[in-house]
Amino acid sequence: MSDKQRILIADDSEMNRAILTEMLGEEYEILEAENGQQAIEMIEKNSGIDLLLLDIMMPVKDGFDVLTAMNQYHWIDELPVIMISAENATSFVERAYNLGATDYISRPFDMAVVHRRVVNTLMLYGKQKRLMQLVADQIYENEKSNSLMITILSHIVEFRNGESGMHVLHIRTFTEMILRKLITMTDKYPLTETEISLITMASALHDIGKINIPETILNKPGKLTQEEFEIMKTHTTIGDKILHELPFEQDAPLVKTARQICHWHHERYDGRGYPNGLKGDDIPIGAQAVALADVYDALTSERCYKKAFDHDTALHMILNGECGAFNPLLMECLVEISEDLRSKLHSGAVDHDYLAEAQQISAKVLHNSNLPEQDNTSRALSASSIKTDFFLHHTHSVQFDYSAATNVLTLSDYAARHLHGPQTQQLTEATSQYFFSQDDMRKLQKLLHATTPQNPEVKMRAQLPVDGKYRWFRVYARAIWLDDTNPVYLGAVGECHPVQSTELPDKGENVNLVTTEGVQAMMRGMEQIFDVVRLVDVKKNTVWTFDEAGKLKPTNHPCHAVWNKNLPCSNCSSFRAFTQHNQISKLEFNDGKAYQVLSKYIEVDGTPCVLELVSKLKENPLLTVDGRNLLSDNMSAYSQALYRDPLTNAYNRRYYTEQSEAFANAEGVAMIDVDNFKAVNDTYGHQAGDETLRLIVRGIIDCIRSSDILIRYGGDEFLLFFPSIPSDIFASRLEEIRRRMESITVPGCPNFKPTVSIGGVYGAHPLADAIHRADLKMYDAKHERNHVSVSILPPPPQRDFDVE
Question: What is the pTM for the complete model shown?
Answer without folding.
Answer: 0.34
